[in-house]
Design goal:
With about 425 residues, the protein is mainly alpha-helical. The protein is built from 15 helices and no strands.
């Protein structure tokens, strides 16, 4: 096939190349958003709080897909830029096996320690029961979800971001349809199980089809073959992807800390309000994450080909695109805070008022959010894992942890 990376990237071409990955990440975020919408509106705010409490825990095993997806894609993309296609395929195959194996082990560990962690966070009674009910089903699909996240980066690296978009759209539609059927039709005590089952089936499809696609003959730049073990490549991929790993783990841990603080200051209702903000922010953050994933192969390829003039051009154009997008998202979020929040908690006037008030403050973060996400991804694509990890660690863990611990002492629930 014609190599799509051998071209000059204008603003239009750069955006067009990134759009499938942006759409793919937005659809990916719909999984938990759809669950939240149906659970909140048909099972109530208590069940909604349980789903929100679970999400940070369930994302931890999936970080394996981020590590080897972003970190491995940087190595594979550089090999393609150097003209070493056979080596690129061998590395791609190795990272696929390691991702699936590690994701499975972490899922089993998560299942073993789940209840202890939930009790430590303060979940008890009905909240603990609902969390357990949701997790026992969805844990089975987490290895496949890990693969789905992993293949996000490699669909772009293989020159087939549109195929990745189609897979995500199919899985997203399946999740939505099953949620509509199961959550609405099942008795109240089983609605949260229906939401978990809908997501588990969609994640399984979203993870296994890309595996099938790359195993069979295809016209992309990559194909799965017999992997050749290389400890050095695995370590390098982990170093490259350490920022995404650190960022994802930090987000999960900080998410648990948010829930802990919210239970102290506002109870389960506070978790429900914050959950709405998180669901909406997933869509906004997905634009920046999708752009970073979609353009990372361009950066890795140009770096491998030593085309530094084009590399600088891509960086300059990307920063301007992120600036405009961040401004537009911030203004949009401020203007439409009430209707967006009412989609989830419009049935409860007091909860809606609390949620909208918090979202007006929270939405200010969208203006600069893209620079942190893209900056980390840019250095990952250059195989500069240490710099990338430092950006991600400071952004997602150090500053946010300090804020969520200290600001409530002065501002109460508004500080969170």
């Amino acid at each position: 096939m014609t190599n799509p990376f051998r071209q000059h990237f204008t603003y239009r071409r750069l955006w067009q190349f990134a759009v499938p990955s942006i759409a793919m990440m937005i659809i990916e975020s719909i999984y938990s958003i759809v669950d939240g919408f149906f659970v909140s509106n048909y099972a109530g705010k208590a069940a909604f709080a349980a789903v929100n409490l679970m999400i940070p825990l369930l994302l931890i095993p999936a970080t394996t897909g981020l590590i080897f997806g972003t970190g491995g894609a940087a190595l594979v993309g550089q090999c393609l830029g150097e003209g070493q296609r056979d080596k690129a395929n061998r590395l791609f195959s190795l990272f696929t096996v390691v991702t699936l194996s590690t994701g499975t082990v972490l899922t089993l560990a998560g299942a073993f320690w789940l209840e202890d962690v939930l009790r430590f966070l303060g979940a008890n009674g009905d909240l603990l029961r609902d969390c357990r009910q949701y997790a026992r089903i969805i844990l089975f699909s987490l290895p496949c979800y890990t693969l789905q996240i992993f293949f996000h980066s490699f669909f772009a690296t293989s020159g087939k971001p549109s195929v990745g978009l189609a897979v995500s759209m199919a899985a997203g539609c399946l999740n939505t349809g099953l949620d509509a059927i199961l959550v609405i039709s099942l008795p109240l005590e089983y609605k949260i199980s229906g939401a978990a089952l809908a997501t588990a089936i969609a994640e399984t499809v979203g993870g296994l089809y890309p595996l099938y696609y790359f195993l069979r003959r295809n016209d992309s730049l990559l194909r799965l073959s017999r992997p050749a073990w290389s400890g050095r490549a695995v370590v390098q991929a982990m170093a490259n992807g350490s920022s995404e790993f650190m960022g994802s783990i930090a987000m999960s841990l900080v998410g648990l800390l948010y829930n802990f603080q919210l239970l102290r200051y506002a109870g389960a209702e506070g978790i429900a309000a914050y959950g709405v903000m998180m669901y909406i922010s997933m869509i906004f953050a997905s634009v920046f994450t999708g752009y970073s994933v979609g353009t990372a192969p361009v950066i890795s390829f140009q770096y491998g080909a030593e085309n530094y003039r084009e590399l600088r051009s891509v960086l300059r154009k990307s920063l301007l695109l992120l600036l405009g997008s961040g401004l537009a998202m911030t203004l949009g979020a401020e203007l439409f805070a009430a209707p967006l929040c009412s989609l989830f908690v419009g049935y409860d006037a007091a909860l809606l008022e609390k949620t909208v008030s918090g979202f007006h403050k929270f939405a200010l973060s969208f203006f600069l959010m893209g620079f942190g996400i893209y900056g980390s991804a840019f250095f990952t694509a250059l195989n500069e894992g240490l710099i990338s990890a430092l950006i991600a660690f400071l952004r997602t863990f150090v500053f946010e942890t300090a804020a969520v611990l200290l600001l409530p002492l002065f501002l109460g629930i508004s500080g969170i």
